[in-house]
Task: inverse folding
């Protein structure tokens, strides 16, 4: 009971119990020099090139810091990828910021074993965040995080990272944003200004009971049928990386 009260108090103070995160791999490309070829830095590319670009020298803009990866396809399709070894049974999130100066199609993909888990299709000229959450199953320890583009068009990449999701922890989040309404008994609808990337549902004591990733719409309906009556906490992440917390009562 005491833990439940602390969790609820945290929500009203702009805090929420969510998954703790350990960064497994992160590259904001700040450790490189303008013009460095990333294929010699642990990355691989297909039909094109990937070089480090300094925003000040090239006249572009990085999402954060000064550098970003500028990818120039030479064929009809292109990928920029990083191979990683992950652990069975653990849950990870692949996060990456991308944009296309020409507004052409591209997407981030997490290849885990034989599974290709794709993020939303992106065609934005502004920096857009993609988050892909997945759990590594038996025999899937070899994984590839990649950005794929088509047709032939430049793609810029920044803040390329993989995070291990682990035990609950306290983190600051926004409490405004999306709207949550009851659609029917045990059923709720989340409405956002931006498309939803993921929705996580927790009990008042912080136990995760439902998770939906890459919902890809500005309105998402979910149900708590089969769950106990009482207070539940929603952690909602939109495609731009904004995190909001809402509470609902299942009765």
Result:
């Amino acid at each position: 009971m005491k833990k439940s009260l602390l969790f609820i108090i945290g929500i009203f103070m702009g805090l929420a119990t969510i998954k703790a995160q350990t960064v497994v791999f992160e590259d904001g490309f700040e450790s490189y020099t303008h013009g460095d070829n990333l294929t010699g830095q642990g990355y691989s590319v297909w039909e094109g090139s990937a070089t480090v670009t300094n925003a000040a020298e090239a006249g572009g803009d990085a999402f954060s810091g000064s550098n970003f990866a500028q990818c120039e396809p030479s064929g009809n399709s292109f990928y920029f990828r990083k191979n990683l070894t992950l652990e069975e049974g653990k849950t990870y999130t692949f996060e990456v910021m991308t944009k296309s100066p020409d507004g052409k199609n591209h997407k981030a993909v997490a290849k885990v074993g034989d599974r290709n888990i794709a993020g939303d299709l992106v065609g934005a000229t502004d920096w857009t965040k993609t988050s892909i959450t997945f759990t590594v199953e038996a025999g899937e320890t070899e994984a590839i995080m990649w950005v794929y583009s088509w047709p032939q068009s430049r793609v810029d990449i920044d803040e390329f990272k993989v995070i291990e999701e682990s035990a609950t922890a306290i983190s600051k989040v926004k409490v405004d944003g999306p709207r949550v309404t009851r659609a029917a008994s045990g059923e709720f609808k989340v409405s956002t200004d931006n498309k939803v990337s993921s929705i996580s549902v927790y009990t008042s004591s912080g136990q995760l009971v439902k998770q939906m990733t890459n919902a890809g719409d500005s309105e998402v309906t979910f149900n708590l049928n089969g769950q106990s009556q009482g207070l539940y906490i929603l952690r909602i992440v939109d495609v731009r990386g904004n995190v909001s917390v809402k509470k609902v009562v299942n009765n």
Remarks:
- Residues 1-9, 11-19, 167-175 have pLDDT under 50 and may be disordered.
